[in-house]
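README: folding subset

This subset contains proteins for which both the sequence and a predicted structure token string are available. Records are stored as plain text. Below is the entry for Dihydrolipoyl dehydrogenase (504 residues), shown exactly as it appears on disk.
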Amino acid sequence: MAISTLARRKATTFLSSRFLYSTSKYSFSLTRGYASGSDENDVVVIGGGPGGYVAAIKAAQLGLKTTCIEKRGTLGGTCLNVGCIPSKALLHSSHMFHEAQHSFANHGVKFSSVEVDLPAMMAQKDKAVSNLTRGIEGLFKKNKVNYVKGYGKLLSPSEVSVDTIDGDNTVVNGKNIIIATGSDVKSLPGITIDEKRIVSSTGALALGEIPKKLVVIGAGYIGLEMGSVWGRLGSEVTVVEFAADIVPTMDGEVRKQFQRALEKQKMKFMLKTKVVSVDTAGDGVKLTLEPASGGDQTILEADVVLVSAGRVPFTSGLGLDKIGVETDKAGRILVNKRFASNVPGVYAIGDVIPGPMLAHKAEEDGVACVEFIAGKEGHVDYDMVPGVVYTHPEVASVGKTEEQVKSLGVDYRVGKFPFLANSRAKAIDDAEGLVKILAEKESDKILGVHIMSPNAGELIHEAVLALQYGASSEDIARTCHAHPTMSEALKEAAMATYDKPIHM
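--- output ---
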């Protein structure tokens, strides 16, 4: 059965009305590269992260003369240089080591010993980053995007002053300016990040040795991923979180299973706990903690502390106040549905505007923004942006959580299928997790999908496509899936949503 008439009608309505928003966590930065950018451009992009470089390439592809300004000296922003890419490299490498230690023997692969070569692991990570940053420069050349390396700030709605990496200054002119400067690490009062013993995610990606004890402040995506890396390599990891739950945006039922999975990997959690102070006077680090609601204080010792309390938009020092660009209390630039600020000719995308701080969301923002500038129509629906935690198992989701559906007062049905009943998962001896689908009771339209499994970040995209086109759970259930595959669990969960699964 193809998409039902009702679902098609809803999808058509959705496609005609949706637009977008975005938040790119990628850096801005500037200095002379391929051209000075002194001639007037159709588009000037401040920031060369996922949102910025994608916007620049798309603008050039649409025939607009484009210059991109990036301060870091390498393209890709936080994501590619000190975020998404290096963290996934270390997650994969550390997972391979952990598997060699704990799982290979079950598959008949035995050897006398296995050890970590941390410098080699870091070198592999750095090689991946270097290759990808050079690849983006190649794409700029291919698409004739001018690249200026340096720190830029607005002089007017059509002029950007750039202090270049070479120590010079140049002014880049543009009819339209897109701010894509991304976000920065959120600091905590009384805690100074030195990237040695008190580190941000940047420092956690470059530790020179494996800490015996690692304390992670914050139980969000980044903290859990980096905690997983060092936990697999031998660190004793304790996660301190002020809130009552880890990853508060995650579906509650899935979150509980996820926490149990991490605890089985010996990750410890101290929830509803406040960090009062951090003392670095001795050889190690001493954290003074107390219950979030108040109470007796305790001391927690660590070799390294990772501060992972979130990110904040990078909008200071850009000259926004000089030209009157409106921001909210959090420092985010306020834009309309076309990504335009209150100042004509000045646009913003990614992490510097409201919305999820995700690289792929920033990319969609960038494409849509320049499409609007070029006189076309751009579309981004933030309800359709998937989120992934790249631990093992991974957790991926799109759409509404069960808590959100309940709060909307919608009558709904839930379908679930455990990977313990999936033949491929059992065959590879990696069957922890489940698929959970939420669908509107009357129409069967899918409202949200949540997956906890190996490679959940890959499996989620079938669900993203289904939600994008207003599909029902029956649509997925009646679609043939190859056997044996992990994706069959999604089909079975869909069957459980509208009727009954076969293999459970």
